[in-house]
Amino acid sequence: MIEWLFFLLPVAALSGWLLARKHYKHNPRLQGSAVSPDYFQGLNYLLNEQPDKAIEVFVRLLEVNSETVETHFALANLFRRRGEIDRAIRIHQNLIARPNLPVAQRTQALVELGLDYMNAGVLDRAEQLFLDVLNKPSPPTEAFQQLLRIYQQEKAWPKAIEMAQKVQSQSQENMGALIAQFYCEMAEQQLKSSNNNVAILLKSAHFHDHNCVRATLLEAKLHMQAGNFRKASKSLLRIEKQDHRFLQEALPLLLDCYLQMNNLKVFNNWLDALLVEYPNMTSARLMLTHVIQLQQGSQAAQDYLYPQLQKHPSVEGLHRLISLGEQSNPMLVPLIKGVTDTLVRRGYRYTCKSCGFAGKSMHWQCPGCKQWGSVQPTEIHLSSLETLLESSK
Ligand SMILES: [Zn+2]
Fold this sequence. Notes:
By secondary structure, this protein is an all-alpha fold. It has helices spanning 2-26, 37-47, 51-61, 69-81, 85-97, 103-120, 123-134, 141-153, 157-171, 176-192, 198-208, 213-225, 229-237, 239-243, 247-260, 264-277, 282-296, 298-311, 315-326, 332-346, 380-391, and strands spanning 350-352, 358-359, 375-377. The two termini are 53 Å apart. The structure holds zinc ion (ZN).
């Protein structure tokens, strides 16, 4: 309750000041006299820890007009931020009920009330309010954006697409990538069941975002379901142009396609060329190792991977090499040392428990948040090694 007071007192003081100012303006003879006794009654309720009664007094006291309406908004926002949604709702409803409220502020109050309902998790009420706001002259972008949020939470994808397009035309912000994701959500659902209009949905996704990797992956899966591995592989190869960082997602599907087409040689050559272009792509290197193993056996795979790891050390690569049967080779030790050296060198050994700053040397005063004694030694390099080893299983 004491904490509550600290928050509310400045607002109460501001209300008092606004009230006094208004009072003086309209009644010059009152200059020098005290503010309304109601104001003190409100303060009294506050001091007696009766916030509900205090709010009632303040709300009644502050006649809603262009001077005091901002105080109401501030008070309500304060309550909403503190999770006291029902109080925020009461203030906003009180504002909306005033017939003399200017149009722009009424719209704002409706939006704020909608936000209250969003916070309370009453999405259908929030939706109705924001939809009402859209019918007002020059509706604020906030209403469109909140509706977009609601439709995403409800997974109502067609409505979300419609709203994203409205946000785009309102704010000139490019929503293409987002709209493409919504089409992919719909396509993914359909792919599990009937899949008769999946292709159309994916076309729409690509129409809105030419470089939508997710739509390309789904397109490939659709072709694979139909047994058309040539078309599927053609789709998957396009991902290199769209965003090569996502190729990792395509590699297992590509392997499947080339196995089905009985054409691993082509896949092998493509991976070779890919690694020339992107020498640090560990996923491609491991896939190539696997392809070599399938074509020429474990020894050939080891012979390929071993010199590769000397140039491009990686925990995953090392793991693969060991699984291929390299355990007894003494040449493995310098390779392991190369990997652990990198991990130790790159790992942050000190972190601040207060701000999360991470560094390689001890600081008794944190360079990030300037606190004393908050930086502590950690076993981060050890745990990150374990995490990496864990994730490569
Ligand atoms: Zn810090």
